[in-house]
Design brief:
The protein is an alpha/beta fold and 280 residues long. The protein contains 10 helices and 10 strands.
């Protein structure tokens, strides 16, 4: 797996869940026989997106909450290659929530991996959308007032065609999920439980997750049952594939892209003279 590693050593805190996700990604790429130049990743801003420095593939850092739009653009241009968007729970479910819901509904051909540690950890532990109600953080010293955001339920309700959850401490299980997500013909989403060992070590250490995590027995359930599993948190944290359906991707539904990716299409017969004249 060394061919996927840069010369830069990871700078995450020792024990961070991001190490497990990085290893799982490399294993998935290796098992799918992907070369580094076959893969394109789009990163957000935050601890998770520091991976851009450590993973040797094509990569692009977007603005906070905006990794998905860039990934969608690449997917619309070249949906035959693996396109992966990476974000933390803040960027994915806070600043970027509209992009997340829109991607679920459209069913773009790409994979969205969210490192969910339930905090804004890079900025020293403030409340994020997934922080559980009542939790005391640097920005909520009296406890979180709002109900926490549930990404799995939101994805299922908004027609995401592949909804899964992984756990960074179970690297092999997460590797298998990523492989299945990359092979999915539409929008695949994995919410990854990724403990923060610095700002969450008191209230939600690794042992807190281990006491609650269990594996789903099947790869996908009927929508109503999948929703029930999604509502089990925080008492239980099921991991695996909650919901899956095979429906045509956005690209397959567009006659302009259904057969040939945009980057492979000839532009010899395209005349933009009238368009240029209109703007001049």
């Amino acid at each position: 797996m060394d061919k996927y590693a840069t010369k830069v050593k990871p700078t995450w805190c020792p024990g961070c869940g991001a190490f497990g996700v990085l290893t799982a990604l490399k294993q998935a790429f290796s098992q799918l026989y992907l070369d580094p130049d076959d893969i394109c990743l789009f990163y957000d801003i935050g601890c998770s997106s520091n991976m851009a420095n450590f993973l040797k593939t094509y990569g692009f850092n977007g603005l906070h909450g905006r990794s998905l739009p860039a990934a969608v653009g690449a997917s619309l241009s070249h949906h035959k290659i693996p396109i992966i968007s990476i974000a933390g729970d803040g960027g994915a479910y806070g600043e970027g929530l509209n992009h997340f819901i829109g991607s679920c509904r459209a069913n773009f051909k790409l994979t969205f991996l969210v490192f969910n540690n339930q905090l804004y950890s890079l900025t020293t532990g403030q409340t994020s959308p997934t922080t559980f109600k009542g939790r005391k953080t640097k920005s909520t010293p009296s406890g979180v007032i709002e109900e926490s955001f549930n990404p799995l339920v939101t994805a299922i309700v908004n027609h995401c065609s592949f909804v899964a959850r992984g756990f960074s401490a179970d690297v092999q299980h997460l590797t298998d999920l990523i492989i299945k997500a990359l092979n999915h013909p539409g929008f695949s989403f994995i919410d990854i439980l990724s403990p923060c060992v610095t700002w969450n070590k008191k209230d939600q250490p690794l042992s807190w997750y281990q006491e609650r995590v269990y594996k789903l027995k099947k790869d996908g359930y009927p929508r109503e049952e999948a929703l029930r599993f999604g509502f089990e948190e925080p008492e239980k944290l099921p991991i695996g594939i909650f919901y899956k359906e095979n429906r045509p991707s956005y690209q397959k539904m567009l006659p302009q892209l259904s057969k040939i990716p945009l980057v492979k299409q000839s532009i010899k017969k395209i005349n933009i003279a009238n368009l240029i004249e209109e703007f001049i």
